[in-house]
Amino acid sequence: MAFGDIKTAKGQNELNQYLSERSYVSGYTPSQADLQVFEQLGKAPAANLPHVHRWYNHIASYTPAERKTWVEGVSPLTAGAKPTSAPVKKEEEDDDDVDLFGSGDEEEDAEAARIREERLKAYADKKSKKPALIAKSSIVLDVKPWDDETDMQEMEKQVRSIEMDGLIWGASKLVPVGYGINKLQIMCVVEDDKVSIDLLTEKIQEFEDLVQSVDIAAFNKI
């Protein structure tokens, strides 16, 4: 909504017609728009402008300190435009959209909570289907015989005969240790949660006719 220069008679007449259907320049409470028009008007209007006169005296009844607290409003001080009742309809439409009991916010909050719960459930389902990481270790064992007359092939055969859930035997070789004696160096991969290295070495040492001792030569997490 706009009207012309309110310092002119024409502009004041337009303002009078504008206020004939309104208590304030913008909205239903005094605002900065009222203050702007009030200050530009400068003085009380003529008595033949009853609506402007009523509005001016009302705005003048507020102190300057009170006027500073007024919120922003849409000022219609745009030269050349003519008054219309459209803003009243807009205000009425805005009022119709106001939810005095906040039910709209509650519905939005409930919808947001539902979406959040669905996303959390989908994430949990996806995570539960993801295969768990199995911790494994690669181990190299030194299996030492009693002497140079020990049947090393039989020793290896007995060692490989040990079967445990989570145990896989790998490559092996004979490594000289001196005086014609070789040790069996054998690799294995174990699942940490299923195979105890201490138990494995004890089982190997149970072949006491062939095995003197068992040492861990290398141990690496996979």
UniProtKB/TrEMBL annotation:
This is Elongation factor 1-beta. Belongs to the EF-1-beta/EF-1-delta family. One of its GO terms (molecular function) is translation elongation factor activity. The lineage of its organism: Eukaryota, Metazoa, Ecdysozoa, Arthropoda, Hexapoda. Signal peptide: none annotated. Keywords: Elongation factor, Protein biosynthesis. Residues 77-110 are annotated as: Disordered. GO terms for cellular component: cytosol; eukaryotic translation elongation factor 1 complex. Pfam families: EF-1_beta_acid, EF1_GNE. Residues 92-110 have a biased composition (Acidic residues).
